[in-house]
Amino acid sequence: MIEQKRKRRVAVFDIDGTLFRSSLLIELVEALILEKIFPAAIRSRYGKAYRNWLERRGGYEKYIAGVVRAFEGNIRGVREKDLVRVAGDVIAFHQNRLYRYTRDLLKGLKRRRYYLLAISHSPRYVVNDFALHLGFDKIYGRLLELDRRERFTGRILNEELINDKAKILLRAVRKENLTLKGSVGVGDTESDIPFLKLVERPICFNPNQPLYRAAKRNHWPVVVERKDVIYSIRN
Questions:
Q1: Which of 76, 179, 194, 230 could form a disulfide with 166 if both were Cys (CB 3.0 to 4.6 A apart)?
Q2: Which residues partner with 223 through β-bridges?
Q3: Residue extents of the structural domains in the chain
Q4: What crossing angle do the helices spanning 124-133 and 80-94 adopt, rounded to 10°?
Q5: What is the CATH number of domain 8-233?
Q6: d(C-alpha 133, C-alpha 75), whole Å
Q7: CA distance from start to end of the chain
Q8: Average pLDDT of the segment spanning 16-31
Q9: 3-state secondary structure of 35
Q10: pLDDT band at residue 129 using 50, 70 and 90 as cut-offs
Q11: Is the pLDDT of residue 142 over 60?
Q12: How far apart (Å, rounded) are the C-alpha atoms in residues 91 and 22?
């Protein structure tokens, strides 16, 4: 009888705001503006929301939604090689800008041979190498369509899948011979709730208000890292 391959435990991480202490998409858009690939005028799409967030008069969600609109509204016609170059610069500059708690958690899970799954709403051009540097086994980010001239069309190829993080997790479990027994999930916003409901050990890290409310309802642990202090809240 052929011995069945033992299933590996899985740990799934959101990237932006969970491991990376910013958003890869924000840094990418700002770099594209600095390189004059995107016009500086597009900051008007998120500038007010950014100021409101800094001054605690508005939420982060409106700010990041403006950045997404700016990216999606200007990526059409950009050459792939230009995005690859700028994304590489962003990764090289920011690759160690990590939260200590999630960085150390990731290292510990890797030592215990967990299958490490990264899911991000940022473009895969910037997510992939950033996450590979951290030792992830599989990375999901937004896939951008190219035309015959190797320029972007503005279309997202995997939008339905990338917006359903629970579906991504279940797909990985099925395809990679994984198990949800002993599984770990780390997220920071309400878009992470679907996969946090699936794992045995959900962790809400620096959660926004909707995720914090969900953590209280579901009795999920909350971990906050502020300056050089890390503390846990048990619901």
A1: 194
A2: 205, 232
A3: 8-233
A4: 40
A5: 3.40.50.1000
A6: 26
A7: 47
A8: 96
A9: coil
A10: very high
A11: yes
A12: 12
Which DSSP string do the residues of 132-183 spell out, in sequence order?
HHTT-SEEEEE-EEE-TTSBEEEEETTHHHHT-HHHHHHHHHHHTTEEEEEE
**Residue 199 contacts residue 185 (beta carbons within 8 Å):** yes
pLDDT at 143: 96
C-alpha angle 74/149/131, rounded to 5°? 60
Residue 214's Cβ-count burial label (10 Å; 0-12, 13-18, 19+) is buried
CA atoms of 192 and 206, how far apart (whole Å) = 12
Instruction: Give pLDDT tens digits for 71-99.
Output: 999 999 999 999 999 999 999 999 999 99
* Element (DSSP H or E) covering residue 211: helix 209-218
Output the six-digit token pair for 221.
């642990």
For β-strands 152-156 and 144-146, DSSP reports them as antiparallel
Long-range pairs of 66-72 with CB within 8 A, sequence gap ≥ 24:
67/23, 67/25, 67/26, 67/29, 68/25, 68/121, 69/45, 70/29, 70/38, 70/42, 70/43, 70/45, 70/46, 71/25, 71/28, 71/29, 71/123, 72/154, 72/156
Q: Which of 24, 22, 30 lies closest to 46, judged by CA? A: 30
> What's this model's pTM, rounded to 2 decimal places?
0.91
